[in-house]
Amino acid sequence: MISDRFGGVHDPAMREAVGDYESAVAAFLQHRPSLAFLDLALAHNSEFLAARLLKGFCNVLLARRETVAAAREDITNIKAHVRLAPPSSREAVMAAALGLAVEGHSEAAISRLRALAECQPHDLLVIKLVHALQFIAGQSHEMAGFTAQMLRHWTEKSAGYGYLLGCHAFGLEESGEFAKAEAAATAALHYDRFDLWAMHALAHVYEMNGRNREGIIWVESARALWCDAPNFSFHLAWHLALFNHNAGKSGRALEIYDRDVRAVKSEDFRDIANAASLLWRLRQDGVDVGPRFDELAAIAERRRDDITLVFSTLHHLLSLLAAGRHQAAREMIAAIESTALQSEGTQARVAREIGAPLARSLMSLAVGGRTKDDIEKMLSCLPQLGGSNAQRDVFTRELAMLALRNADLGSLDIVLGQRHLNRCEDRFLRFVEGQALIKSEVLAPDLRVA
Q1: How far is the CA of 129 from the CAs of 6, 89, 92, 126, 441, in angstroms?
Q2: Tell me, what DSSP letter sits at residue 3?
Q3: Backbone phi, psi, residue 211, to 5°
Q4: What is the mean pLDDT of the chain?
Q5: pLDDT at residue 448, rounded to an integer
Q6: What's phi and psi for 330, nearest 5 deg?
């Protein structure tokens, strides 16, 4: 048997393919494109099961209808392979987890992979897969606990230690442990300065702490390290634009949007989330974003019935609402409601508990209608959408605006209180708190003594 540098063990017949596979794993750990390396590995040997499994997971994590279909093809190829050659126990568990993830049972897939990681705590690829699936499946509250459990088995000399530390940094940040997250992310970058996930964790710390000037300096100074990684370069540019906007440089934020955030008009859900949420925040804060939503809305209209990932669908909905495409928005909401009622799996539950009610509330805010809004329940369910606190903030802000419109000052206090826990005070908090004071004065009974 032969080993790769991340501890994977392979049949000697795969020797020519192992180098490309190793490059794919390294890219996956760094959050850089890995599919091209996997295709090269499979071109060497189409029966390389490890490469086929990782390719399947990469396609699942891209979370679009067509990429999940590609993952189903990977499953078919994997089943054909294992009928001819029995897989290792590790490969069998990974194949079972991939099958669950493809069918939308993300939580069950995470449970299988987590059990494998607990038995083999130095299996960095499996650990990273758990972390990535937790991120999109709304298990951010479990991230830090899982990586802390894994770190007990590692030392600084373990191969890939920095990547595990970068994952831990992000989980700490999502848990509000900002000082510990900053220390862990900084240490992770000491082991590999190209670790985009660790860079990303540090950017989140700066944003949540309101350290906009430091964030601008840091992201710009690291540009040479992230500018060649398509999706993550767009995401770090998103952070850079937010730092500038929060620092009062909204014109600069739009320049970054045009040059970096939306440099490529892709349909990757991560790129769409960056673009739609940035423009929505700018627009909500009174910045004229021009016709930029039109391009995003055209994509959203084509994808109005793709509910592969509710987090993604809601960002598409923002684009439709901003562009005034209300009929397409209604059709998208109907598709979310259909998923909630007729489907099974993690995203069906997310659609029921937060996707459909939040979508209806977003629509009512946009068109001036009224819905029966359980704002506090929606706030408590927001983490189920997946993504980060920073990404979901666009929806937290909408819940605050909804409470303000409904003159529901009790719910508004709860929303703003939660937002205060997640991040430092910013211009939006000051605006909403000012509006709430005006509302309270209007609604308060006249207590003056005659």
Answers
A1: 14, 17, 15, 5, 51
A2: E
A3: -90, 65
A4: 91
A5: 36
A6: -65, -40
Residue 117 token pair? 């990681």
Which residues, 6+ apart, have CB-to-CB distance to 154 below 8 Å? 121, 122, 161, 164
CA distances from 182 to 140, 199, 210, 350, 385 (A): 17, 10, 14, 31, 25
- Exposure string over 400-414, b if 16+ CB within 10 A, otherwise e: bbbbbbbebeebbeb
What is the residue-wise DSSP string for 64-130?
Answer: SHHHHHHHHHHHHHHHHHHHHSPPPHHHHHHHHHHHHHHTT-HHHHHHHHHHHHHHSTT-HHHHHHH
CATH, range 1-134: 1.25.40
Q: Which residues contact 431 (CB under 8 A, 6 or more apart)?
A: 285
- The 3-class secondary structure across 368-424, one letter per residue, is CCCCCCCHHHHHHHHHHHCCCHHHHHHHHHHHHHHHHHCCCHHHHHHHHHHHHHHCC
Q: What is the pLDDT of residues 64-80, one digit of tens each?
A: 999 999 999 999 989 88
Specify the 3-state DSSP secondary structure of 202. Answer: helix
Cα 72 from Cα 145, distance rounded (Å): 31
Q: How far apart (Å, rounded) are the C-alpha atoms in residues 382 and 391?
A: 11
The answer to whether residues 98 and 130 touch, using CB atoms and an 8 Å cutoff, is no
Q: Where are the domains of the chain?
A: 1-134, 139-209
Q: What is the helix (H) or strand (E) element at residue 175, kind and residue range?
A: none
Q: What residue type is 57 in one-letter code?
A: F
pTM, to two decimals? 0.93
Q: Which residue has the tokens 């030392």?
A: 155
